[in-house]
User: Which sequence fits this backbone?
């Protein structure tokens, strides 16, 4: 008990090894085996309530996510475990079928002992395709009859993504309002994410989230990744999903893509993709390529935003916390300088009416966001024109 308590409180293997040498607790490996045994007993005797409430409804969006769990804070002497979650939308107006049976034991035992399990039928019930169609774009309707993953992007003529001018104009006005709020130095104005969160109408459905049983093994091992893919496929079959999203980090995704290509078409109904963390890291690296050697990092270092030793990590997108904090600050600073240059070039002064209108828009929700002051509308329109000229190179390289 002492060893399991210390592991839970400190997440440190070093402390457990020290206590074990004095004979006060069992070894670290022994603690992990006890935890694994306890998890299996809990799943057999008392299944998680969230898993019991998952619906076998193909109209409810369902997905799984896997990640590695780091045991220590500094990364030294760590053992990585594979940790997974399953999530499903909760919608009151959907037709719900029977709940998931308790036999759906979403753990490693349900896969390693698959020989004793009955085969899962992949045949869809009559009417299931019609139930799914309203929730999928037309270009994906063929997947319902013949699920197939394509290795290349398929372009369609009749169904293309169109950015509506009204939505584009709305969010341009919101971004300009946020930027002008910093120009006139209004108090308590958050950064871009906080500002949009405050006015955003969140009408997305709630989700039911349940933890899968951790697998006490290296998450990048080929056998473990294969096991998680089989687990995801079984979850999709039991919940009657024609396909399912599988979110994982880069190291796991590399192995999963290789297995998916080798075992084709066994895992074609798994949509394996990276999580937002790695996508943001890739975006930060792309931005770093653009701003490298332009002198911007020198200004950041002189402004004490960034130390000289962290410049390369910032440009390569490796220091996520630095990038997440500094990129919005730098973008805001450039926007403010560009807007002040526009005001100075056109000899424009922000009147009290414009400032009051900007103050009023601070707490307007997206659904009711509307600029009533004509001077502010004209100012934003002229600024957008000036910004496009700047981006096109009329004032020099940009």
Assistant:
């Amino acid at each position: 008990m002492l060893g399991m308590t210390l592991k839970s409180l400190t997440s440190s293997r070093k402390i457990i090894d020290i206590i074990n040498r004095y004979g006060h607790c069992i070894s670290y490996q022994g603690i992990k085996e006890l935890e694994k045994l306890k998890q299996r007993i809990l799943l057999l005797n008392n299944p998680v309530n969230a898993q019991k409430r998952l619906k076998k409804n193909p109209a409810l969006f369902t997905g799984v996510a896997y990640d590695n769990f780091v045991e220590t804070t500094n990364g030294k002497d760590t053992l990585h475990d594979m940790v997974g979650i399953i999530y499903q939308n909760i919608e009151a107006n959907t037709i719900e079928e029977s709940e998931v049976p308790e036999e759906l034991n979403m753990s490693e035992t349900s896969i390693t002992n698959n020989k004793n399990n009955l085969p899962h039928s992949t045949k869809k019930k009559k009417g299931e395709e019609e139930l799914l169609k309203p929730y999928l774009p037309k270009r994906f309707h063929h997947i319902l009859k013949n699920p197939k993953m394509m290795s290349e992007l398929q372009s369609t003529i009749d169904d293309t993504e169109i950015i509506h001018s009204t939505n584009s104009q709305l969010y341009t006005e919101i971004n300009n309002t946020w930027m002008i709020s910093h120009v006139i130095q209004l108090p308590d104005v958050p950064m871009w994410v906080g500002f949009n969160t405050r006015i955003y109408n969140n009408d997305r459905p709630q989700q039911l989230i349940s933890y899968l049983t951790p697998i006490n093994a290296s998450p990048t091992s080929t056998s473990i990744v294969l096991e998680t893919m089989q687990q995801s496929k079984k979850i999709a079959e039991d919940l009657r999903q024609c396909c399912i999203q599988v979110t994982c980090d880069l190291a796991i995704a590399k192995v999963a893509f290789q297995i998916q290509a080798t075992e084709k078409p066994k895992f074609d109904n798994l949509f394996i993709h990276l999580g937002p963390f790695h996508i943001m890291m890739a975006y930060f690296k792309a931005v770093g390529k653009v701003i490298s050697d332009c002198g911007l990092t020198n200004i950041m270092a002189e402004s004490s935003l960034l130390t000289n030793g962290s410049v390369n990590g910032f440009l390569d997108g490796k220091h996520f916390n630095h990038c997440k904090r500094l990129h919005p600050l730098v973008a805001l600073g450039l926007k403010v300088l560009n807007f002040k240059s526009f005001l100075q070039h056109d000899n424009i002064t922000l009147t009290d009416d414009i400032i009051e209108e900007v103050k009023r828009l601070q707490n307007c929700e997206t659904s009711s966001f509307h600029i009533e002051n004509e001077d502010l509308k004209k100012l934003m329109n002229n600024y957008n024109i000036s910004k496009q000229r700047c981006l096109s190179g009329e004032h020099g390289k940009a």
In short: The beta strands are 62-69, 81-90, 206-211, 244-248, 270-274.
